[in-house]
Write a structure and sequence with these properties.
Length: 165
Amino acid sequence: MLRRPMGMVLGVALASTGCFLSPIPDMRTPADRARELDVRCRTFSDRASAPALTPAGVDTVEADYAHVPTGNASEQRLQGAKLHLRPLAGATAQALQRTLECHERAAVLGVAPSAPDDPFVLPGRWLDLDVGTEADGFVAVVRADNLGDAKQVLARARHYIAFSK
């Protein structure tokens, strides 16, 4: 009979279910992450989603929080910003997601400039972007890895739309 340490069995079980807990931190730089999108962004151009990249394309901005368990309660932790985007004729959440990812990639690699206070880009950092639908529009959630960056993302998003109203 072959015996395996419990940790090995647990690791195999977690990996086989799609959940992998690695003790090794992600050491990729923002440029490394941007280059991973080269193939997806090489031929991508969706002009229908481009208006979402302008301040006028954003209806409202709010803070994005995670609820973290703390003993018998939970605590809210700022993760970034939620940008509620105006509806775009013919656009899908998937196309808008790709537009924002390729926009961040281009800015990080210096291929294209980003606007001042662009909420989808944070110089020297890689942001997690997630686009979904709500009511008749879209919501773009922009998350950072730490509280300092999350505060910057939220401030940039608020400043970005302040002058378009």
